[in-house]
Design goal:
The protein is mainly α. The protein has 1 helix and no strands. Keywords: Coiled coil.
């Protein structure tokens, strides 16, 4: 036996943000994106380095 579920239309949430807050958030986003790029590059270098060496056999 199934029950019918009422579906509501999505609601829109409006918020206010000051220009200085928006600028700060954009700056933080840019810094995080740069950090992600740095970490990806570091990880890729480690993967490349690890694939270039032979694993030790026990």
């Amino acid at each position: 036996m199934s029950t019918a579920q009422m579906t509501r239309p999505p609601q829109t949430l409006y918020v206010s943000i000051r220009r200085d807050e928006l600028r700060q958030l954009k700056d933080e986003r840019d810094q995080l994106q740069q950090e992600v790029l740095r970490l990806r590059s570091h990880l890729q270098a480690q993967i490349s380095q690890a694939s270039g060496t032979q694993p030790a056999l026990c």
